[in-house]
């Protein structure tokens, strides 16, 4: 499977293993349970909070974009219309400094 085909959960698992972290350790670092992270990595639950994705990216030492799908997708951003691009650079907190 090419990297472009990986889900967000699979990308998290790949980067976690690359860093040599167990699910338990990474989950604790972001204030979640091992069971929650296992479900995320295996696609049984979806990550729907940008803050959680950002925390995972920070603990994994990768840019947030490395955890997001390559295909165009959208996320709900309060105050910015019904749908906004999932590109972190397009979000006010990640864009211009």
Summarize this structure as a short list of keywords or feature phrases.
mainly alpha; 97 residues
Structure description:
With 97 residues, the protein is mainly α. The chain has one domain (3-70): lambda repressor-like DNA-binding domains (434 Repressor (Amino-terminal Domain), Orthogonal Bundle). Helices cover 38% and strands 4% of the residues. The chain contains four helices and two strands, in the order ααααββ. It has helices spanning 8-18, 23-29, 34-41, 50-60, and strands spanning 74-75, 84-85. The chain has a two-stranded antiparallel sheet with strand order 1-2. Helix 2 (23-29) packs across helix 3. The protein is globular, with a radius of gyration of 13 Å. Mean pLDDT is 80; it is low at 72-77 and 80-84.
What overall geometry do the principal axes of the alpha carbons give? globular
Strand order of the largest sheet: 1-2
Query: What string gives the helices and strands in order?
Result: HHHHEE
Residues in helix, %: 25-40%
* Residue-averaged pLDDT: 80
**What is the number of strand segments?**
2
């Amino acid at each position: 499977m090419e990297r472009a085909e990986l889900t967000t959960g699979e990308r998290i698992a790949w980067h976690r293993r690359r860093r040599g972290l167990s699910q338990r350790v990474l989950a604790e670092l972001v204030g979640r349970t091992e069971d929650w992270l296992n479900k995320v990595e295996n696609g049984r639950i979806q990550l729907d909070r940008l803050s959680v994705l950002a925390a995972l990216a920070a603990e994994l030492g990768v840019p947030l974009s490395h955890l997001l799908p390559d295909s165009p997708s959208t996320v709900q951003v309060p105050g910015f219309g019904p749908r906004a691009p999932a590109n972190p650079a397009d979000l006010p907190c990640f864009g211009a400094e």
